[in-house]
Amino acid sequence: MRGFSxxxxxxxxxxxxxxxxxxxxxVTVISIGTVVGVLVAMLALGQGLESFSQTGVRADRVSILSxxxxxxxxxxxxxxxxxxxxxxxxxxxDSQGKPLASGIVTQIIDGVTRRNQHGSIGLFAADTQWRKIxxxxxxxxxxxxxxxxxxxxxxxxxxxxxxGVDLGDEVKIHGSPWKxxxxxxxxxxxxxxxxxxxAPTLLSALPQAPYSAVDAVLETPASFAVLKQSIASDxxxxxxxxxxxxxxxxxxxxxxxxxxxxSYFIGGLMATGAVCGALSSLYAAVAAxxxxxxxxxxxxxxxxxxxxSVLAEGLILAIPPALLGTAAAxxxxxxxxxxxxxxxxxxxxxxxxxxxxxxxxLAIALIGALLPAIRAATLxxxxxxxxx
Length: 388
Fold this sequence. Notes:
The protein is of the alpha+beta class. The protein has helices at 2-16, 22-54, 81-86, 130-133, 156-161, 199-205, 223-232, 244-288, 290-298, 303-333, 351-378, 381-387; strands at 61-66, 101-112, 118-126, 138-142, 151-155, 170-173, 176-185, 194-198, 213-217, 239-243, 337-340, 343-346. Strands 1, 2, 3, 4, 5, 6, 7, 8, 9 and 10 form a ten-stranded mixed beta sheet that branches. A two-stranded antiparallel sheet has the order 11-12. It is elongated, with a radius of gyration of 30 Å. The two termini are 31 Å apart. 40% of the residues are buried.
């Protein structure tokens, strides 16, 4: 108990002395706040991408890709396999007995943004059942495309970001003109980030293009196991079944890893500078209290309470900049629209990032306070008293 009372007394004294060394303390606060603000702003990219991939996800929708494919862009399904896949048990049927499943074709075409920058536009083509599979997509203007004609729908997001993709415009797809006849809006997920076409019509115009996937609606979420087992037991099919959430996650996985690596790498470099700031501040605190600490040690204060008080001061100084840095990132970046890898999503500063920011701030303060704390506890009493 005596050690605890010494610790609290020393910590209270150290905190009361902060105004006398305000400049050094501000170095720590500003350094940590800057690191946290930059780190949270960069991690908000990954969080936004994650939120985007899971927006509108339903437990009763699945994607079927070729074995080994990471995304629909590197998946190849034979046209002859599509009827066999969509006829498997577990897939819901409409009132006419037709499976709620569609072969999917995905392509990437070039575009020019409204800022005159080159960009990529996803081209998503599906069979006639697509409106029943994705009922959340609704028409804002124009009409739906007619199968057999070179007609497209454009999502509102793509229309707002790119030139030449408005209602009535023509888009060149491998040299052939396709007319935009309608504008649609989904619920904020992948469906909102593409041009949409009729799959058989697109395949007839691009004979070398394969189906990329089959998307389907299950009878119930529990039917996932039934469908997966049925497909696994068919030796003629070399495909894998993923839930919609899993399929979306595969699309962003590599990009998310890159964003997080860059964020933590840059954050780590900046944290090194912040540690130096904390060292400077807390060494100054120890130097200013050399005589006081020596006197306390001479009258019986132990080394552990002294070390603990210096560490506690550093940790307490870290909390305000963690909160301020996160708040600044939220004000400046939360909700900002980003285009990365052909995907359009919003940066997201989440409560999880607040926890990450506090952890980083405390880690920086702890590392920066460790050496000054050891110095305070090991400085010979006689030497410290002679300095006075």
